[in-house]
């Protein structure tokens, strides 16, 4: 069977293949489960032996996700990468890396991180927005809304808690006898996406990262076995607004690392075996200047062949063809968008395993991805029609800046 790596290699460019077999975000929750002694209920293997986490013995685990912290950005701003490695290795831990999933976007990647090892193809969570065939529309999966319509998806009968058929990380751990807790920014603790992802948990809203880490510490001290989750979106937010590796990006990352370092330094010993802290990210970002932006509305030969508003997002766009127009749409989009975008057949991308094992794909996966999938190269972005939105950093495609993320592990206390 063709692999995503082999399939992408035939198309040239610098794209990074997702390593679903043992080196991606889908393998992280499975690894957490194995560390905590829960061996059943997982849909994937744990991280491969080369990552080193299989040698850890843990009864308690804290997973910290720093949204938008890409590995290549840390390597270019080496002082930050050095601080992270020193934090882990100075405590007797380790520093490695994994790939994100496809698309490399928050709604999809954090769903994978908080799942049971199921890939995007298996869960059917396949984009920032995507076609929902039963509703006959394109829905925004991050905000649970319908673009261009004030009515949300829930008002149309789609409850977040019922969207995924596979269990969450929390449900799988609790079924194995491991208590869990989650600590999120108060603004998103009960958002539709959180309700989807945190089934089996009751996430607590926190005012900031320091408060979330303190609350996670209290939880871990209260139990001899347990899993805690902490999430911070601040780096992703500033990266979208100002761009990655900018002065604002550096200030926010410095603040996050300072909070984390101070918290680790101030920890008093835990009773029993020390908990382990895992630190990773959902994706990185690419600088997307306005001069490299395109719009579908400016491509009449493409627009005329569309049945629905595009889905996905500007660096991983899904184009849905009118009946009988798929071949023409692929040809028109390829001609109009080369060389800044790679245009591929959505069902072919699914069959190649780009979104996960095609033999276990969600029954609607082929309808949710586009008939034509438009993958941005370099700094390019392709917007449906927005002219007012200005995002100087974005993600979703398969460049190394988006796909490679760090993974650190260290004992606490």
The CATH class name of the largest domain reads: Alpha Beta
CATH architecture name of the largest domain: 3-Layer(aba) Sandwich
* Largest sheet geometry: 7 strands, mixed
Strand content: 15-25%
Strand order of the largest sheet: 2-19-10-1-9-7-8
User: What value does the average pLDDT take?
Assistant: 96
Give the termini separation. Answer: 46 Å
CATH topology category name of the largest domain: Alkaline Phosphatase, subunit A
Give a short synopsis of this structure.
This protein has 413 residues and is of the alpha/beta class. Helices cover 31% and strands 20% of the residues. Helix 4 packs parallel to helix 11 and helix 9 runs parallel beside helix 11 (247-265).
Describe the structure.
By secondary structure, this protein is α/β, with parallel strands linked by helices. The chain folds into two domains: 275 residues, Alkaline Phosphatase, subunit A (3-Layer(aba) Sandwich), CATH 3.40.720; 105 residues, Gyrase A, domain 2 (2-Layer Sandwich), CATH 3.30.1360.180. It has 16 helices and 19 strands. The longest helix has 19 residues. The protein is globular and about 65 Å long. The mean pLDDT is 96.
Features:
413 residues; 2 domains; Gyrase A, domain 2; Alkaline Phosphatase, subunit A; 16 helices; four-stranded antiparallel sheet; alpha/beta
Secondary structure: elements and pairs:
Blueprint lengths: L3 H6 L17 H9 L24 E7 L4 H6 L1 H12 L4 E6 L6 H8 L6 H4 L5 E4 L4 E4 L4 E2 L2 E4 L16 H7 L4 E6 L6 H6 L6 E3 L2 H13 L4 E7 L1 H9 L4 H19 L10 E5 L5 E2 L5 E3 L4 H4 L7 E3 L2 E4 L6 H12 L3 E5 H6 L13 H4 L3 E5 L4 E3 L9 E2 L5 H4 E8 L2
Parallel strand pairs: 1-9, 1-10, 7-8, 7-9, 12-17
Antiparallel strand pairs: 2-19, 3-4, 5-6, 10-19, 11-18, 13-14, 14-16, 15-16
């Amino acid at each position: 069977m063709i692999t995503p790596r082999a399939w992408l290699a035939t198309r040239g460019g610098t794209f990074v293949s997702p390593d679903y077999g043992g080196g991606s975000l889908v393998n992280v929750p499975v690894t957490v489960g194995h560390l905590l002694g829960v061996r059943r209920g997982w849909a994937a293997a744990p991280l491969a032996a080369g990552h080193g986490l299989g040698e850890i013995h843990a009864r308690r685990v804290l997973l910290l996700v720093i949204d938008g912290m890409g590995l290549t950005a840390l390597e270019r701003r080496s002082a930050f990468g050095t601080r992270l490695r020193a934090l882990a290795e100075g405590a007797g831990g380790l520093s490695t890396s994994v790939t994100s999933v496809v698309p490399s976007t928050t709604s999809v990647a954090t769903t994978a991180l908080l799942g049971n090892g199921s890939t995007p193809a298996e869960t059917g969570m396949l984009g920032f927005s995507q076609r929902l065939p039963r509703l006959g529309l394109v829905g925004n999966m991050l905000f649970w809304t319908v673009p261009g319509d004030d009515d949300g998806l829930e008002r149309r009968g789609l409850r977040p808690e019922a969207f995924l058929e596979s269990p969450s990380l929390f449900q799988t751990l609790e079924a194995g006898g491991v208590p869990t807790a989650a600590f999120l920014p108060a603004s998103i603790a009960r958002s539709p996406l959180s309700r989807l992802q945190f089934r089996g948990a009751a996430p607590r809203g926190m005012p900031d990262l320091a408060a979330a880490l303190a609350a996670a510490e209290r939880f871990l001290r209260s139990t001899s076995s347990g899993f805690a989750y902490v999430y911070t979106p601040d780096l992703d937010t500033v990266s979208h607004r100002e761009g990655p590796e900018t002065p604002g990006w550096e200030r926010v990352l410095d603040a996050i690392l300072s909070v984390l370092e101070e918290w680790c330094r101030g920890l008093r010993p835990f009773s029993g075996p020390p908990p382990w802290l895992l630190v990773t990210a959902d994706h990185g970002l690419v600088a997307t200047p306005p001069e490299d932006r395109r719009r579908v509305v400016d491509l009449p030969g493409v627009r005329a062949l569309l049945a629905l508003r595009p889905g996905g997002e500007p660096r991983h766009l899904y184009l849905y063809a009118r009946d009988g127009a798929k071949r023409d749409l692929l040809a028109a989009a390829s001609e109009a968008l080369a060389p800044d975008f790679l245009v591929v057949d959505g069902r072919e991308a699914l069959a190649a395993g780009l979104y996960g094992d095609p033999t276990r794909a969600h029954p609607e996966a082929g309808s949710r991805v586009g008939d034509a999938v438009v993958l941005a190269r370099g700094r390019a972005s392709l917007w449906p029609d927005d002219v007012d939105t200005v995002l100087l950093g974005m993600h979703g495609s398969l460049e190394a800046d988006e796909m490679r993320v760090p993974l650190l592990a260290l004992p606490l206390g």
